[in-house]
Amino acid sequence: MLRGKTIIVTGANSGIGKATAAELLRRQGRVIMACRNRERAEKAAQEIQQEAGPEQGELVIKLLDLASLKSVRIFCEEIIKEESRIDILINNAGIYQCPYTKSEDGFEMQFAVNHLGHFLLTNLLSDLLKRSAPSRIIVVSSKLYKYGEINFDDLNSEQSYDKAFAYARSKLANLLFTLELSHRLEETGVTVNALTPGIVRTNLGRHVHIPLLLKPLFNLASRAFFKSPEEGAQTSIYLACSEDVEGVQGKCFANCLEEQLLAKATDEEVAKKLWDISEVMVGITT
């Protein structure tokens, strides 16, 4: 049970984030839904409260647009002002294979939302997380990280853009971020771990084009072979709640078990360099 604990879940209005928020609320946590669209968040909140049952915790909606560094800063200022503690931060939100667009700060959108927005969010909330220790940070990555590469000469995909590669790169960045952050959090009482949820039926694939004639077949196959959002959320919930991972630092999990990563996701030198460049991109110094 999570009575007395405050949890932030980004992208909590749909998919894995929504299922995660519902379960944490059912366990009587105080869940802050960090969402881009208030209307969709309010609709999701009603559904989450119905799912969570009578003995539930508290649900709070806060606006957060991870594609806007200004929005991230405003969100964090409000959290620091209004919340006495943050026990768990779940960096869940993401976008998948969108056409080439740039964020309002001029960054390729998938890299901006999936990596940079969460990078800034976590850094700005780190002092509050440390004051709340023992506390946990959870980073939702993807097995598709395996197809990504960190090209420091073209992080913004201005020389070339492949939407699948860009997504994979952003998910690799999540793992490298987790690795470097784990070193920086040693002896603080704050742990950070990542997870890969598997293939889940969510609206994440809304930018993926499926021919009209194949859609019925695809929908049938997805119901047969893809995880439900509730199944996809299990590792996030495990990392948030389980005593088994108390004190565990800098690991990646799948299906609630530790996952062995490829060497590209455990490269200390690349992780440090990505951190330093990310600091410059989001405008922070440490």
From TrEMBL:
<comment type="similarity">
    <text>Belongs to the short-chain dehydrogenases/reductases (SDR) family.</text>
</comment>
<dbReference type="GO" id="GO:0016491">
    <property type="term" value="F:oxidoreductase activity"/>
</dbReference>
<protein>
    <submittedName>
        <fullName>Retinol dehydrogenase 14</fullName>
    </submittedName>
</protein>
<keyword id="KW-0560">Oxidoreductase</keyword>
<dbReference type="Pfam" id="PF00106">
    <property type="entry name" value="adh_short"/>
</dbReference>
<dbReference type="InterPro" id="IPR002347">
    <property type="entry name" value="SDR_fam"/>
</dbReference>
<dbReference type="InterPro" id="IPR036291">
    <property type="entry name" value="NAD(P)-bd_dom_sf"/>
</dbReference>
